[in-house]
Amino acid sequence: MALIPPTAKFLRGFLLAGLLAGIAGRTPAQVPEAVIPDDPRVDALLARMTLEEKAGQLNQPSAEHATGPVVRSDDERELIRQGLVGSILNADTAQECNRYQQLAVEESRLKIPLLFGLDVIHGFRTEFPIPLALSASWDPALVEQTARFAAREASRQGVRWTFSPMVDIARDPRWGRIAEGSGEDPWLGSAFARAYVHGYQGDRLSDPTAVLACAKHFVGYGAAEGGRDYNTTEISEVTLRNVYLPPFHAAVEAGAGTIMSAFNSLNSVPASANPFTLTTVLRDEWKFRGFVDSDWTSVQEIIPHGIAEDGRTAARKSFLAGVDMDMVSSLFLSHLPELVRTGQVPAGRLDDAVRRVLRLKFALGLFDRPYVEIPAARKPADDPAGLELARRAAEESFVLLENRPVNGAPVLPLAGGRARRIALIGPLADSAADMLGSWKCEADPHDVVTLKTALEERAVRDGLQLTYARGTDIAGSSGAGFAEAVAAARASDVVVLALGESGGSSGEASSRAHLDLPGNQPQLLEAVAATGKPVALVVFSGRPLTLARAAAQAPAVMLAWFPGVQAGPALVRTLFGDVAPAGRLTVSVPRSLGQVPLYYNALNTGRPRQDPIGMQGRAPDPHYVTGYLDETNTPLYPFGRGLTYTSFSYTPVKVSTAKLSAAALNRGGVGVTVGADVRNTGRRTGVETVQLYIRLRGTSVARPVHELKGFARVSLAPGESRHVEFKLGRDELAFWNQAGVKSVEPSTLYVWIAPDSAQGEPEKIEIAD
Ligand code: BGC
């Protein structure tokens, strides 16, 4: 995708918008060799190592304060002295990292430094919004900044490796780990994958603030059957290559140093012992130069998966398939030396794995600077630049989904005489810990400014009357607080209702079989709405919830996800209109649980409910069509949706040519330019996320009815219009086809530019041979 500014007049605004989104999404891939350079010291060192020391470099126990099946702290210290540990995860302070490091670089024979890894997922100390929220910004440059900031904080403590980004495509909100990724779209997911990698790793790994990225969980983890964490996945190769692999490939091309193999089985083969994905795709096709870490005990877990009966077989199968480092199982340490001695594992395979690990340790400069300076004191998250970034990131991530007028004006922003008396109600209004979501890393709830605190400050500043009532607990069943909440609502001009899940209800091992607001929160909403006062519902969650009934009762609905340390200030500024909401959904919001998995880029069926293009003008039989007897097929809110405090209009899309050549495109030839004018038709400045969609027909394998292939955030003043253009070439039009090749096929291309995935009028282009 590329943006072409129409006139110099808009250059500044364009550049801003472009830098904020589209252009960053296309940051050219760094050449991985340049990111992970060869170092002559690697082979020199390798030549001096015993088999045990080699296996040691592939052994990754967890630091002593963590829990886990095979963590024995005294042993770990001795193992480090013997050169039998290559990396430690979960050491998180400079003191702790240095203490372990000293054993390695001063007391072991070869003095090879340890690499410290940690789950720095959406911030280290300064907590940003959860990744799903960050993705709703559609702003890869912003995400890159948050990752860079987190890398600075983490590296100061000696942590030079994060188990992030999670680039799993997730189509099922029951799966709690949907919170950790960038949603359901491979194109957008790839843009964010690149942004995270560049942010963590910085310009060069040798920079002491560079933190190795780890794209996880390779692969297919997000397709867990039933949305149940760790569950089986079945994904055809076409879907694997067109949907689940692209964000990983983007991360590899951006230079990601490591990949984590997943827990799930993929097409009956555990992902941590899968030679097709770990070797054929990752090494042979993508030429990945970094190393593969297993997920936590996932090497050992191939025993319960059923493809190994003992630890020795598990180690052999997993290692031969392509896992290089064993997180926590310690099976590589126990078995690889003997497996090599008996010829069951080639010595060259062991050397390759160790070489990959050592190469990165040299690249990171760990041999030259194994220690970090001990900071004077453990400080709160008080860096003004970090807090400002956290606030801005939260503001960009809020998705406004309803803003219906009450008494002639939309409920939001809260303004003037219509909102002098505010009732703040709900269990999430003042819950600091929940604002951090899952994987809060080193964040401290004391650093969080809640919505209540920030609203109190605003009330004092603006002379507003604020009444607070908690109403109920997050998973509450008692209605004891309802009367107070209803009284507060009655005495107000407007209610801000803060409902949702707890911060721990999403993330790992946090799947849900129900997607409603938990506990008796729906009843609280009902009681508050019955007062007739306008309700602005702010929903905190790590996943899309089923909100059909809530949205009917509350005229304004905004998804806040888990916004991080600056939750309150960001929300108050948005609710009062100091800034306008700019987030767009990166996941479809279902109407009801029975619809899931539900995603916008689905295949058509032979019996679509409604599809003039697919049905070629014939009306479908109203009964024998795909669907439910008791629910529609459409989501409550589609992928890409998000309102703001102004409105935009789009002109019909214009294309630069009505005919393309597949052969020319496959040779990298010129594609088509697609453009539309976007106009701010409202009364205040706003940011619009302009989205480019395509559909391909007449292809060898069925293609989705919509596919995102470009986006741009543009800021427009009232009345201002901007011409936005995208280029479609091979990158956008090629897909993995029936012959197992990625190519542009002769086909019919439909293309359109729209504010979300459910709108827009397509233009038709022929792609000839
Ligand atoms: C999770 C990974 C995480 C690892 C290390 C596992 O349980 O699946 O995402 O990086 O633990 O903490």
Keyphrases for this structure?
alpha/beta; six-stranded mixed beta sheet; five-stranded mixed beta sheet; 25 helices; binds beta-D-glucopyranose
Main beta sheet strand tally, sense and closure: 6 strands, mixed
* Gyration radius from CA atoms, angstroms: 26 Å
What is the distance, rounded to the nearest whole angstrom, between the alpha carbons of the first and last residues?
23 Å
Mean residue pLDDT: 94
Which ligands accompany this protein? beta-D-glucopyranose
| Content of β-strand | 15-25%
**Gross morphology:** globular
Give me the oligomer status: single chain
> So how many helices?
25
Description:
Mean pLDDT is 94; it is low at 1-29 and 66-71. This protein is an alpha/beta fold. The strands form 9 sheets. The protein has a 6-stranded mixed sheet, sandwiched between helices. Strands 21-29-28-23-24 form a 5-stranded mixed sheet. The radius of gyration is 26 Å and the shape is globular. A hairpin with a 5-residue loop joins strand 26 (735-736) and strand 27. It is 30% helix and 17% strand. Helix 5 packs antiparallel against helix 16 and helix 10 (186-201) runs parallel beside helix 12. The longest helix is centred in the first third of the chain and has 17 residues, at 140-156. The structure holds beta-D-glucopyranose. Residues 89, 119, 163, 216, 295-296, 508 line the site of beta-D-glucopyranose.
